[in-house]
Amino acid sequence: MIYIALVVLLVGIELIYFKIADKYNIIDKPNNRSSHTSVTLRGGGIIFPIAISIAFFLGYLSWSITLAVVLVALVSFIDDIRPLSQLPRFISHVIAVGLVFYELHLFYEPLWLLPIVFVLLIGWVNAFNFMDGINGITVLYALTAIASFSFLPINEASSPMLITMGLSCFVFGIFNVRKKAKTFAGDVGSISMALFLGYFMIKTIIDSGQLGYILFFSIYGIDVIITIINRLLKKENIFHPHRSHLYQYLANEMGYSHILVAFIYAGFQLGINLFIIYMDTKGYLSLSFIGGFLLLLTFLYLLVRNFVTRKLVLRNL
Q: Of 55, 94, 203, 231, which residue is the least packed, with the fewest Cβ within 10 Å?
């Protein structure tokens, strides 16, 4: 019953937010870099940090992770309303990562490990935010990760927290996973969800001792890294908005449905996650396997990307 009540509460909060966003003109206007064509309410992902706060008050989550998520969500929400400079956003991310380190006792680990984890977590948060470009992709990918984490016996004690976050994704999906979205997550949603998922990934790796679970984020990771490399080779500013991700080519230039592309990304990632879990149960998830499988995924991604870009070139001739 508590989860049904939670869904009703989150739907109510979302509807109230829509009225506020509409009144104060918190909207996303399409431009030549956008993947949408109509004005849409921005910041509907505010229910992600709200769900985190609810999880804290229900005793499912620690104060440090709650504070970390709420902090980046608050700064990101301000940025959604009135764009901020890089400095306050970076400072909030650094403090949030510090709170994650505190929660996971990483400050007691070897000093050489801390900058590596710091860069990976900051990189993941920004990568997840970069990928928030078409209807459904952020929430479906997040839901895939949460479901995969929930499937692991090592995370059984965290089930109430994962269910709470999964329900927030479900509620947001009601208004976002549709042909014409009612709302977008905004930075407040994508960055807060990214931080939560990044925290839980590190927690899962530490608790299980299995680095291979990092492949739960492989589709996004490969797409972002290859896209950044591509843009650098073209001497583009990687911090400027663009439409160079594979999912953007598929949705914008190829004309596939946003929802179809979002389900393809989430579906492939879910298939990979189930395979990784299976391989771990069989004891095959060694470092060499992880590296080889990651290379295989990268090769397959490049094949698909090259096929799509060649097709677009031929179409424009």
A: 94
Between β-strands 27-28 and 183-184, what pairing exists: parallel, antiparallel or unpaired? unpaired
What tokens appear for 260 in the block? 């179809």
Cβ neighbours around 299 below 10 Å, total: 10
Q: Rounded distance, CA 273 to CA 193, Å?
A: 19
Per-residue pLDDT reduced to its tens digit, 146-187: 999 999 999 999 999 999 999 999 999 999 999 888 999 999
Our count of domains for the chain comes to 1
Q: CA 129 → CA 24, 125, 209, 223, 248, distances in Å? A: 24, 6, 28, 13, 14
State the pLDDT confidence band at 31, using cuts at 50, 70 and 90.
low
Query: What is the tens place of the pLDDT at every residue in 204-233?
Result: 999 999 999 999 999 999 999 999 999 999
Q: Distance between CA 287 and CA 291 in Å, rounded?
A: 6
What secondary structure letter does DSSP report for 251?
I
User: The whole model's pTM is what?
Assistant: 0.94
Residue 99's domain comprises 2-316
Cβ-proximal residues to 42 (8 Å cutoff; 6+ apart), any chain: 21, 26, 27, 28, 80, 183, 184, 186
Q: Which residues of 243-258 are buried (b: 16+ CB within 10 A; e: fewer)?
A: ebbbbbbbbbeeeeeb
Of 275, 262, 261, give the one whose Cα is nearest residue 308. Answer: 261
Rounded-to-integer distance, Cα 117 and Cα 111, Å? 11
Whose tokens are 């230039």? That residue is 253
